[in-house]
Amino acid sequence: MRTLLGFVLGLLVRLWVWTLRVVVEAAPGLDLTDDVPLVLAFWHGEQMLLLGWPRRRRTLVMVSWSRDGALQSGVLGAQGLRVVRGSSSRGGAAALRRLSRALSAPLDAAFAVDGPRGPRHRSKPGAALAARLCRGRLVPMGAAASASRVLGRTWDRFRIPLPFSRVQVVLGAPVDPVLAAERPEVVDQGIEQACRRARDLLDGRAVPAEVGA
User: Fold this and answer.
1) Cβ atoms within 10 Å, residue 84
2) pLDDT in tens, 166-189
3) Which of 59, 99, 146, 187 makes a 20 to 30 Å CA pair with 40?
């Protein structure tokens, strides 16, 4: 029932996201045209800003087995994302194996790496492990919106871009997944750099590079 409710809510989110004016920048040298899977790493709370970027192909996401996760599964499914259930605390290893096998299709994957309940902006190893298993590229991802509201009572300070606002998405330089598994702070730094780059581009403090698609 919650998944169905989530799907209905997801249709409203899809309409909301459709109003956003999204621009994407990819790091120089990041090839978005080959079949190597991308494993995208971003912070919890930024999901809605990232839903509007033109994904190059079907993308997998991992969602927890919680009641909130059932609702989230419906919302994300309505965006055309393929959902795999699991988390670091429950069913994570099995879900990661299913996700890694599916990435050989090829598909891409997206991870909110500081979940499912924080600490905020501290990476867990799931994305790095998935990238190693599928021999994919681990890509930090960040975004900024010209107008948004933050749900301050949520642990992840969930950000909602206002309708018709401008959203800048940045795909950073790939991170070595072996290094990322040993030193998660490398992923943290990559995501922070992508977020900072997105804000600078949006505010006109940086010159755009070649736009990814």
Assistant:
1) 19
2) 999 999 999 999 999 999 999 999
3) 146
